[in-house]
Amino acid sequence: MKFFRRYIFPALYGLLAYFTIRLLTDSVSGMRFWQRSWTLNGIEMAFSVMMGYVFIYAYHRLFAYYDQRWQDQFPTKRIRQELLGVFLINLLVQNIFMTPMVALTDDGLQFFDLIDVNIIPLFYAFIYYGVKRSHAYMQAYIHNRMQLEKITTDKLETELKFLRAQYHPHFLFNALNTIYFQMDDDVVAAKKTVEQFADLLRYQLYDQQETVNISQEIQYMQQFIDLQKIRSSTRLQLQLHFDEQLKEEKVYPLLFLPLVENAFKYMGGDYLLQVELRKEGADIYFFVQNSIPETTPEIAGLAVAREKGIGLENLQRRLELLYPGKHRLMAGIREQQFVAELKLTLPT
User: Fold this and answer.
1) For residue range 135-165, what is the model confidence (pLDDT) as tens digits?
2) 302, 198, 324, 145: which is closest to 252 by C-alpha?
3) Alpha helices, DSSP H, located in 186-308
4) What gap in Å lies between CA 279 and CA 260, rounded to an integer?
5) In the chain, how many domains are there?
6) What is the rounded distance in angstroms from the CA atom of residue 340 to the CA atom of residue 317?
7) Where are the transmembrane segments (predicted)?
8) How sure is the predictor about 302, in pLDDT bands with cuts at 50, 70 and 90?
9) Which CATH number covers residue 259?
10) How far apart, in Å, are the Cα atoms of 91 and each of 52, 70, 125, 245?
């Protein structure tokens, strides 16, 4: 194909322009070119083939110049300049080579000869330009779209990493605080807690842009709850329900945990904590409800509001990035209970 474009196509291009000119000229003058001297026809065709190579070479040089100058951009100014260049190339080449030859053959240079000699090659030149540059324009468009998507993806990944970094210090503080108070009372239990903490931390080091089986998330939440139970009051009333149907569904990690951690952090009153994760058709439904202190609801409300400013808004932004248009998060206080609900629609 490369050989054809480089060596065969220019000759065919020149001959196409020549035969079109001859057809129009003969139609007006009544002449038949096959009745002319084949020596003369051969000379004209040789000139046309030569001009075909000159045209294609000149076009490519013109395109290369503007490709280097504008690279992958195709503004209106560039297109106007390229079309003007194509026009001037045709005007110059045709009138230097073809017009004098027409004037010296047959009945001399007539007005319709001059029109045909200049208009027909220009017509084909604009067609060639349209085909050639439309391909280049499409390639540039695809390249720019890919670059834009890459920039957008990099930006979102950076933001996700930043949100993840915001979450880690909070988790680390709570876990280390638990281990600190255990060291004075039960060293063996503290060692076991360190092991649990290491498992949790190892899981958090996974790439947050990659999905995991929801069974891994359930196991992680169970380990986290076991760790938090060590710090919790003996009055804790814990109700857990993880749907057994949930096993191989793919989800992004650490989206459920902030709601559980928030519940443990601000639990009070009856110390009731209810956690439920179930499948609803194509959706995954996560529900967390915890009691809050009865005597100081305004303080509890303030604490929840502060946590929402750091934790829940962080979670909401991650959901917007990872599940755009396919999630619903609701959280608020209902009758001395803080309730959080998260619904995810998984891709089919």
Assistant:
1) 777 877 777 677 667 666 666 665 555 555 5
2) 324
3) 187-204, 214-231, 257-265, 297-307
4) 18
5) 2
6) 16
7) 7-25, 45-62, 83-103, 109-131
8) very low
9) 3.30.565.10
10) 14, 25, 11, 76
Considering the domain architecture, whether residues 218 and 103 belong to the same structural domain is answered as: no
The verdict on 142 and 62 lying in the same domain is yes
| Cβ count within 10 A of residue 81 | 16
DSSP string, 23-73: HHHHHHH---GGGS-HHHHHHHHHHHHHHHHHHHHHHHHHHHHHHHHHTT-
Q: To the nearest whole percent, how much of the chain has pLDDT over 90?
A: 14
Whether 190 shows a pLDDT value over 70: the answer reads: yes
In contact, 89 and 55? CB cutoff 8 Å? yes
Amino acid sitting at position 208? Q
Q: Are 21 and 14 in contact (CB under 8 A)?
A: no
Look at residue 200 and tell me if it is in a domain: no
Band (pLDDT 50/70/90 cuts) for residue 299 is very low
pLDDT at 276: 96
Residue span of the structural domain in which 258 resides: 206-345
pLDDT of amino acid 185: 75
Question: What's the rounded Cα separation, in Å, for the pair 45 and 58?
Answer: 20
pLDDT higher than threshold 90 for residue 341: yes
Contact 273/236 with Cβ under 8 angstroms?
A: yes
The angle subtended at Cα 83 by Cα 140 and Cα 22, nearest 5°, is 120
Instruction: Indicate whether 181 belongs to any domain.
Output: no
Q: Taking 50 as the threshold, does the pLDDT of residue 301 lie above it?
A: no
Interhelix angle 9-29/38-70, rounded to 10 degrees, is 130
Within a domain: 54:
yes
Question: What is the spatial distance between Cα 251 and Cα 282, in angstroms, rounded to a whole number?
Answer: 13
Gap between the Cα atoms of 229 and 275, Å rounded: 14
The H-or-E segment that residue 274 falls in is strand 272-280
Distance between CA atoms of residues 38 and 71, nearest Å: 47
Q: 327 is written with which tokens?
A: 């999630």
Nearest by Cα to 318 from 262, 259, 274: 259
- Report the b/e string of 11-29 with b at 16+ CB within 10 A: bebbeebbebbbebbeeee
